[in-house]
């Protein structure tokens, strides 16, 4: 046996053989054709089932679906190694991770090329792997997890390693974890491998598995060999199947599982005739961050020690989320220019855009809270705010951004070298509770009041002399339960009222602040004792802090009910909050695992029951304290210090603050983050049930099903009997017959949330409905329409039933271009040649209108539409009131999916119908000629008598006429406020600047900001109506300056919001030039007129004199290059230069037009 050991160490043990190229198994039909894995409709429950049913099945790509998967998916099955039946869940060389969401393009797991181009790591998500397990616990896999890893640098032979994890129920990627493991190499015996993070195997060379991240492998993880494994061949090139990281060889490797599932297992349950219920959305926020461009920057107090992080507090007031911490300013983007705002800043609570307010705190902000009336109470280490003395607290009026002078509270301390730090605020029932480092407060009507490290104020900020917990050390965080019975404190204290209370305690809110000494907090370790966060609500209290612990308590008895410890690269818990959906979020400087039911740091023991990845923030069920397996995706922390502030926004989003510098908005898209991120709430509303399910054709092999579209649906799933058999983005699908031929359809939102399904729709063995279809659908969504897509005019009676449309084109709806799911696709030419309006008609028959209540009509308006029945308008959408014609633009632009999701349903009474042929007519209008899409489709359905909607209530009587008002004076901008952006985003064509418009201007001899024509702040500029200047008696804004004070150069700026621009968007400027001018758009010079070449500055003179009359009569026409324009706000800027210092006139005016 010792000889065999030596052989293993030298790499001479048996191997599994050569790499096998991906194989399409379609030619080898399995024994069970209903679940052979060869198509989506015939997905098998496992690779093992395929192998059992067809022992000759080959390695390749198969369709699989287990009872815990919502829909079938394609996966690679290894049908050769160790008896076959293995499904691949990951592959690659070095760079494996613990990420819950997986890594890389997971579509690549469908094949196994085993080439040098496949070394980039791809890992399936935990959700995908657990779906493949079909409810089987990882610990119940007798075969364990199999890894095939390259046995030589050429990848021509592979070693098989099998690992069993006896404590792992739900799958996680086990790298760096404390999971115990048994291991087996090739066809050897199983051995106890110990703990994953210690490394394991039968020797320290080729019979070893290194799943750790350490200096030994340069913190690069893989299915590494042992430190004594050496190779004299290539271990460094990009084509070698061995890659040496430090002293460890990481080979190209593949991971597999082999759940033994069959398609007739009890987990597959027949769907009842009523269909399946809608899914419940996860209670947690998204793992991905919202797109944001603004953040905070700088270090206010210069310290990078714990407790001095950039972002430490949040509070939402109205639509603004205020952010507090240790920063000096805000900026837009990683390379943006810092705008000074120290300690506090406000951002839009949805978009993250900075609100423009600036503040000046001389030290960091630690907490924020909203007072009744919407005022912002700020606490921290500061002593000065906006130049005023405010020690520890200050009240800000968010409406103005100014200090509220009614708040006069001041703090002092006889400890900590006299440095006050108010660290935590809790407001409840018109009382304010504080925690921190302080001993006395005064102000707001009270003299100095003793309150050591914990205090209570009335809602006006007056200290309460009857309540003082007298903590002997700093209080880091506090909370008060919703009944205001107890004040919970976490910190560095060891005594209260001279009674022992180590770092976590609760005191009564009754006068005297008596300590509850009936319980003692149990620490996770013997040294380094302190707690940093506490959250109390709904009968549960959670304390977090050192060492790496989050412990839950029942607030009635204060018995401990749950515990989690973060390790290996763990860290102390630093902040916590709770959501309205019952999730407790807690943060730490930790980036490996949280272990559930663990209570001891370093020596986890064997009591823990679950390990979950944690990346700075984790999620726990509030009621039980159980880990829910939630953590942000790849959130980047500059110094690996994690989150120090957590807050739920009013919309359910989770805000996390610290020193975050990078976040991901999806699996593949990332962004710079400035200290904080916002994790949006998940969509809680599942899509509606698809209506009008019916068969449009069928035979003995398949049936074609159709249904009405569902607003907000990204796709649809067709279920048969007990599982999903097809997925489509259309509203129809042809699916094979099988089983009992009971079909259901459900809609799926873009985030994967599934709505309730239809009731069972049953067809016979010939694909025909078992019961007659509903005959109430008069116009279906794929019926054939007549349409006129041309700039040629149509007759006035085009919407009437009597109109002859025989010369029009015909096609199945949806008809159009640029959108998904079209049955008739049009090919648009150049934008300027496209018709603005498309006309379409379809007839439907009503035998006897008196026998029905009427019809419901729904039409897709992309971009806008006017809808007629028998020539009478019944509804319009995204169209202005009044007369419309072929040149009328829609009032807004929408995508095709958005238009379909926004279809309006209008009831047309039977009195508007005729016996026999009726006509639904639609004119669809673009918002601009180069609109990206245009779609026509519609539906007409009978409304039975008695089911008519209730008539709209009669309008209120017209009020008595009021006296005629005096004509409104002209609207003049407030001279003391900056000129607002001119919004022309809804304008499709025509003038948007004309004589008399207001402009920002700078007529000082001092030069303006160097970026005046691009991004400079214009708040200190003047503004006035054009024409502007001197020498023109018709000037809207004359420059009445002595000749000696007139500048050679005068500057004019207007910011204009164009909205979303098309490729053909066009802007034309007509500029009065007197005497010379340089014209810019967004900082780019687009033309200079009567000016010398070379650099231009404030003293540059025009090349020649131009008389006023000539300047008025000869406007310079400039077409703005499309490439300098951008979506949203654009800056149009002009500098006008005199030819000499005593010029008789220097005037400016502009007219401008646009065409979309």
List keywords for this structure.
seven-stranded mixed beta sheet, mainly beta, single chain, 37% strand, disordered N terminus, nine-stranded antiparallel beta sheet, 1156 residues, 82 strands, 5 helices
Short description:
The protein is mainly β.
Structure commentary:
It is a single chain. The protein is mostly beta strands and 1156 residues long. The strands form 21 sheets. Strands 1, 2, 3, 4, 5, 6, 7, 8 and 13 form a nine-stranded antiparallel beta sheet that branches. The protein is globular. Residues 1-31 and 964-970 have low confidence and may be disordered.
Give a topology summary.
Layout lengths: L1 H8 L37 H7 L6 E5 L8 E6 L7 E7 L29 E2 L2 H8 L11 E6 L7 E7 L15 E6 L5 E5 L4 E2 L6 E2 L32 E4 L2 E4 L1 E5 L36 E4 L13 E7 L2 E6 L3 E4 L6 E2 L3 E5 L16 E7 L3 E6 L3 E2 L2 E2 L3 E5 L4 E2 L6 E3 L8 E8 L2 E7 L2 E4 L2 E5 L3 E5 L16 E6 L5 E6 L3 E2 L2 E2 L3 E5 L22 E7 L2 E6 L3 E6 L5 E8 L5 E6 L4 E6 L4 E4 L13 E4 L3 E5 L14 E2 L5 E6 L5 E11 L5 E10 L14 E5 L3 E5 L8 E6 L2 E6 L3 E5 L5 E7 L12 E2 L14 E3 L4 E5 L20 E4 L2 E3 L6 E2 L11 E10 L7 E6 L4 E6 L2 E6 L18 H6 L2 E6 L6 E10 L8 E3 L1 E6 L38 E2 L5 E5 L4 E5 L19 E4 L2 E3 L6 E2 L10 E9 ...
């Amino acid at each position: 046996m010792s000889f065999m050991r030596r052989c293993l160490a030298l790499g001479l043990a048996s191997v599994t053989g050569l790499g096998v190229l991906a194989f399409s198994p379609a030619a080898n039909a399995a024994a069970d054709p209903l679940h052979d894995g060869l198509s989506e409709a015939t997905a098998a429950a496992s690779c093992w089932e395929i192998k059992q049913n067809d022992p000759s099945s080959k390695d390749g790509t198969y369709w699989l679906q287990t009872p815990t998967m919502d829909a079938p998916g394609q996966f690679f099955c290894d049908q050769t190694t160790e008896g076959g039946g293995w499904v691949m869940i990951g592959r690659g060389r070095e760079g494996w991770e613990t990420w819950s969401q997986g890594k890389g393009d997971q579509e690549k797991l469908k094949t196994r090329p085993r080439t040098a181009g496949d070394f980039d790591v791809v890992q399936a998500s935990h959700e995908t792997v657990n779906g493949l397990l079909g409810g089987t616990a990882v610990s119940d896999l007798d075969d364990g997890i199999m890894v095939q890893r390259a046995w030589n640098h050429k990848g021509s032979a592979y070693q098989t390693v099998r690992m069993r994890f006896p404590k792992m129920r739900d799958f996680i990627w086990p790298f760096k974890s404390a999971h115990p493991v048994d291991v087996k190499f090739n066809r050897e015996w199983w051995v106890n491998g110990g703990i994953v993070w210690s490394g394991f195997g039968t020797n320290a060379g080729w019979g070893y598995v290194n799943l750790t991240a350490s200096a030994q492998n340069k913190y690069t993880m893989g299915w590494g060999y042992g430190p004594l494994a050496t190779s004299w061949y290539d271990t460094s090139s990009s084509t070698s199947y061995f890659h040496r990281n430090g002293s460890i060889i990481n080979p190209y490797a593949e991971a597999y599982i082999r759940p033994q599932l069959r398609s007739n297992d009890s987990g597959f349950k027949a769907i009842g005739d009523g269909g399946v219920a809608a899914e419940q959305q996860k209670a947690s926020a998204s793992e991905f961050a919202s797109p944001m461009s603004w953040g905070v920057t700088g270090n206010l107090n210069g310290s990078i020690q714990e407790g001095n992080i950039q972002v430490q507090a949040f509070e939402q007031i109205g639509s603004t989320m205020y952010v507090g911490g240790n920063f000096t300013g805000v900026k837009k983007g990683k390379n943006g220019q810092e705008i000074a705002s120290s300690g506090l800043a406000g951002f839009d609570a949805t978009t993250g855009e900075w609100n423009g307010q600036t503040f000046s705190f001389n030290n960091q902000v630690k907490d924020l809270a909203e007072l009744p009336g919407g005022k912002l109470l700020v606490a921290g280490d500061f002593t000065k705010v906006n130049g005023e003395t405010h020690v520890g607290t200050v009240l800000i009026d968010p409406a103005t951004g100014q200090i509220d002078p009614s708040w006069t509270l001041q703090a002092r301390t006889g400890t900590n070298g006299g440095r006050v730090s108010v660290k935590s605020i809790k407001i409840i029932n018109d009382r304010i509770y504080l925690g921190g480092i302080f001993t006395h407060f005064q102000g707001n009507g009270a003299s100095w009041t003793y309150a050591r490290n914990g205090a209570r104020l009335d809602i006006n900020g007056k200290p309460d002399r009857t309540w003082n917990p007298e903590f002997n050390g700093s209080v880091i965080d506090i909370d008060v339960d919703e009944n205001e019975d107890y004040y919970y404190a976490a910190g560095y204290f060891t005594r209260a009222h001279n009674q022992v209370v180590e770092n976590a305690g609760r005191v009564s809110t009754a006068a005297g602040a008596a300590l509850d000494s009936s319980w003692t907090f149990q620490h996770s370790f013997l040294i380094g004792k302190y707690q940093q966060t506490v959250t109390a609500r709904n009968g549960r209290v959670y304390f977090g802090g050192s060492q790496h612990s989050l412990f839950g308590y029942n607030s009635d008895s204060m018995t401990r009910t749950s515990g989690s410890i973060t390790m290996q690269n763990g860290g102390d818990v630093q902040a916590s909050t709770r959501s309205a959906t019952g999730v407790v979020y807690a943060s730490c400087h930790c980036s490996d695992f949280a272990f559930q039911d663990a209570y001891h740091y370093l020596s986890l023991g064997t009591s823990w029951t679950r390990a979950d990845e944690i990346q700075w923030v984790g999620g726990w069920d509030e009621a039980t304290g159980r880990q829910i397996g939630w953590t942000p995706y790849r959130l980047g922390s500059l110094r690996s210090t994690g989150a120090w502030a957590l807050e739920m926004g009013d919309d359910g989003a989770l805000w996390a603050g610290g020193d975050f510098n990078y976040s991901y908005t999806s699996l593949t898209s990332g962004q710079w983050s400035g200290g904080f991120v916002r994790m949006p709430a998940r969509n809680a509303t599942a899509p509606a049930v698809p209506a009008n399910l019916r068969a449009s054709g069928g035979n003995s092999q398949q049936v074609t099903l159709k249904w009405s579209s569902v607003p907000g649906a990204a796709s649809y799933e067709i279920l048969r009997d007990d599982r999903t058999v097809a997925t489509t983005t259309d509203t129809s699908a042809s699916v094979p017959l099988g089983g009992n031929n009971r079909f259901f359809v459900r809609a799926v939102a873009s985030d994967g949330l599934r709505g309730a399904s239809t009731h069972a729709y049953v067809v016979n063995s010939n694909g025909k409905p078992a019961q007659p279809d509903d005959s109430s659908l008069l116009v279906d969504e794929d019926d054939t329409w007549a349409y006129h897509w041309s700039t040629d005019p149509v007759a006035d009676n085009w919407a009437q039933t009597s109109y002859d449309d025989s010369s029009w084109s015909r096609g199945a709806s949806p008809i159009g271009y640029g959108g998904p799911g079209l049955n008739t696709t049009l090919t648009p030419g150049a934008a300027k040649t496209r018709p603005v309006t498309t006309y379409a008609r379809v007839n439907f028959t009503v035998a006897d209108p008196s026998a029905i209540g009427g019809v419901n009509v729904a039409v897709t308006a992309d971009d806008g539409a006017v809808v007629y029945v028998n020539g009478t308008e019944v509804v319009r959408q995204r169209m202005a009131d009044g007369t419309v014609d072929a040149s009328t633009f829609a009032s807004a632009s929408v995508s095709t999916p958005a238009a379909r999701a926004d279809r309006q349903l209008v009831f047309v009474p039977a009195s508007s119908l005729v016996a026999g042929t009726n006509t639904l007519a639609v004119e669809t209008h673009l918002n601009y000629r180069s609109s990206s899409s245009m779609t026509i489709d519609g539906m007409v359905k009978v409304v039975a008598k008695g089911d008519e909607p209730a008539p709209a209530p009669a309008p209120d009587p017209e009020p008595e006429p009021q006296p005629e008002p005096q004509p409104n004076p002209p609207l003049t901008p407030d001279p003391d406020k900056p000129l607002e952006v001119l919004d022309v985003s809804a304008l499709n064509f025509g003038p948007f600047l004309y004589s008399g418009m207001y402009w920002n201007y700078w007529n000082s001899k001092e030069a303006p900001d160097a970026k005046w024509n691009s991004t400079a702040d214009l708040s200190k500029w003047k503004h006035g109506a054009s024409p502007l200047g001197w020498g023109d008696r018709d000037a809207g804004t004359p420059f009445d300056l002595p000749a000696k004070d007139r500048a050679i150069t005068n500057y004019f700026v207007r910011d204009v919001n164009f909205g979303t621009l098309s490729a053909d968007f066009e802007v034309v400027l007509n500029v009065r030039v007197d005497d010379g001018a340089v014209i810019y758009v967004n900082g780019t010079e687009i033309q200079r007129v009567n000016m010398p070449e070379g650099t231009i500055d404030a003293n540059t003179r025009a090349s020649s004199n131009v008389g006023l009359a000539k300047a008025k009569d000869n406007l310079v026409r400039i077409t703005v290059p499309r490439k300098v324009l951008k979506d949203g706000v654009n800056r149009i800027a002009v500098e006008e230069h005199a030819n000499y210092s005593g010029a008789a006139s220097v005037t400016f005016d502009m007219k401008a037009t646009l065409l979309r």
